[in-house]
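Q: Hi! First time doing this. I have a protein sequence and I read that you can turn it into a structure. Is that right? Here it is:
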Amino acid sequence: MTLLYPTFLWLLLPLGILIYRSKQKVTTLVHLIILILLVLTLARPVQEDALQEANIEAKDIVIALDVSFSMRATDISPNRYDFAKETIKLLLAKNPADNIMLIDFTTKPLLLSPPTTDHTLINIALQSLNPKHILTKGTSMKALFTRLKKMDMGEKNLILITDGGEETDLARLQNLVQASKLSLITLGLGSKKGTTIAKKDGTMVKDKEGHLVISRLNPLLKSLSDAVGGSYITPSSTPEATADALSDALIQHTTQTQNVKKMQRIYKELYQIPLGLALLLFLLLHTRGVKYLFIFFALLGVQLHASFLDDYYLDKAYKNYDKQQFVQSKEALQHIEFPSLQSQIALANNAYKLGAYKKAIALYKSIRSTSPSVKQQLYYNIGNAYAMQKAYDKAKIYYTKALQLGNDVDAAYNLACIALLHDSKEGALGISHPKSQGGASSKSEMQEDKKKKKQEEDAPSSGSGGGGEKSMQKKKNQKEQKKNKLLMDVRAKPQPLGSKAYELINKGYIHENHPW
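A: Yes, that's right. Below is the predicted 3D structure, encoded as structure tokens:
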């Protein structure tokens, strides 16, 4: 048990002093106990469950920030880059549930934060970027749009924050934006008059002929936004007002929200226990009968209503599952308001029985538990799903994981079948039923499945896991390591970007193909 608002416990200090010094009637003492119970109610005691994956409605947004040398211009106070950075910070605060990806770009784009609803990570990435270490003076929206097109992200909102650089090819940029299926919202930073740009030593940037460089807002930005049906916004007097304008533009451009998966901690409320006890003591103290206690039970029943319905639908789903009515079982599970470990496993088992093996694997992998027996059960079910897809290499991995957590007759049998297959494409397995929470598949079920498919099984032969398989697995591991290079470790302390990251920006290189 834990308390969500422990600061209310400070109120117990004066109440404890009153009880210690109180030498009055029992009635006064009971009143003080009632107040203590109310303080505990305000502290909101809860029982924590494991992290669970939940679907939330959110907009998919890509924020592309120009970090080239021209963004240091001071025609917008304090400068273009700092104004943009503060605007993004306020925009994140105004859209806390949205799924946002942050990219910076100069002559080439670089991913700073993959799509996430954890805006703290985005702010950390934004704060760690120091524009003083970025030396490139060019701005290439063409390279940015080309990169976004290759990512094939589907229909998303793109917030482009830039001064426009020296771009001139409107037709090319228009085609790239339309091909990438991005709804464009442009924040043009700069002024038509423009201004000079100062270096670290205080001198002004000059061109090759020795003339002062004047950085102006590129008028092509507005033409591009109009051409693709987007929105063009100029900075307001404050970053907050600018963030409001961007939020309004997002509302106009977003026709529908999308379901985004997010890990959330589920709590079981316990505040009704001290509240009920306080109410019970009050009624016993100030009434002559017990007839008023129905009020207490009525209030308690309101809190138990949702839990009661969830138990009803879970029981209904189990009964339909036993009757092989998997569609009806799935429909019953979808009525559950607060998913539990049992309901999540049951939902994954239904997907498996309906032949949706990819979905079943995703559901099994989304379940979090600290129990070794539950983990073993999940590994076994994942192995079954991969085996039904004939992905025997992956099935071996999960059967082995299940056996590492303890003896499992079913997992050992299936692993032996896979290991002895002569031709994995032609082999047929006697896969047991997926194991449900609260009751694993019995050995008799396994033997029954074995008899049903006995005519389809190939004769066992040796040599299904040779050296070639190990080399393929090694290549897969190396590939996964490359994909994970840019992932952020949320447990680590925030660190500034290293010199290698700035080399990537300055040299214009970017290695990831699918960064998320």
